[in-house]
Design brief:
5-stranded mixed sheet, 39% helix, 7-stranded mixed sheet
Length: 244
């Protein structure tokens, strides 16, 4: 029996990067059903693909979207794609339905009597908005860290040691530093209060989280590179983070 959810939210798959966990994601999606699937930004890594046009992202994308198509057919799932900073090329399709998937910049969800704003999260990142070049340098550094980390873990495997993700630790530290510098959480709170939202749902910072910023509930779906995390809403309209 498949586990059923009312809503599943995934972000930061970064399809195109060699570190994308496509097989694991397909396995997860085949084990669940839902009424609504939200692909919340940085699904396709346009920055990486632009630098590496020969990368095999198309085959990964086709396998993933065949799986999503099966979900749509078998459980009548609605699929929404909200683009982020790495896949901002999708903005040309805003308001359109592409192979059954509706493309939006953001959306509002009502759950449990509460109003949530769903967006990738880059809109709250001052560095990304005002100095995109710096974000791209950071992305390149992260790619290099992932490459080093993979080789380091091969070395550890030869010595029967468990893998260790120093790339994830550094990414988490730098994202936290940037979040503090740009007042990421403060911007979320101000936006929610100003627009009468009870909560904000996003991704972008690659760190799953379920917490309260004052009276505002902040939910982050994390990423599907190292955390392999997903945000789900059950049939009782309760939200939680699931780690695959």
């Amino acid at each position: 029996m498949k586990k059923h959810y009312k809503t599943i939210i995934l972000s930061d798959l970064h399809l195109g990067m060699p570190h994308a966990k496509v097989n694991e994601l397909i396995q997860f999606l085949r084990s669940v059903s839902c009424e609504r699937l939200i692909l919340n930004g940085d699904i396709i890594d346009g920055w990486y693909i632009h630098k590496h046009p020969k990368c095999a992202w198309r085959s990964d994308l086709m396998r993933l979207f065949r799986t999503i198509s099966e979900m749509m057919k078998n459980s009548t799932s609605d699929v929404i794609y909200t683009y982020g900073n790495h896949d901002d090329f999708m903005q040309r399709y805003i308001g359109k339905v592409v192979v059954g998937i509706k493309v939006l910049k953001d959306l509002t969800l009502i759950s449990g009597g509460k109003k949530f704003f769903v967006t990738h999260g880059d809109c709250f990142d001052t560095v990304n908005r005002k100095a995109a070049w710096l974000s791209k340098i950071g992305a390149s550094c992260y790619e290099f860290l992932l490459y080093l980390n993979e080789n380091y873990n091969r070395y550890r495997a030869l010595r029967n040691k468990k893998p260790y993700s120093f790339a994830q630790s550094i990414k988490r530290w730098t994202k936290k530093l940037v979040s503090n510098f740009t007042k990421f959480e403060g911007q979320i709170t101000d936006f929610a209060i100003k627009n009468d939202y009870d909560g904000i749902i996003c991704g972008h910072i690659h760190y799953p989280e379920d917490t309260y910023l004052g009276n505002i509930r902040y939910l982050n779906s994390g990423d599907w590179i190292y955390n392999k995390s997903v945000l789900v809403e059950d049939e009782n309209q309760c939200w939680k983070i699931v780690m695959s």
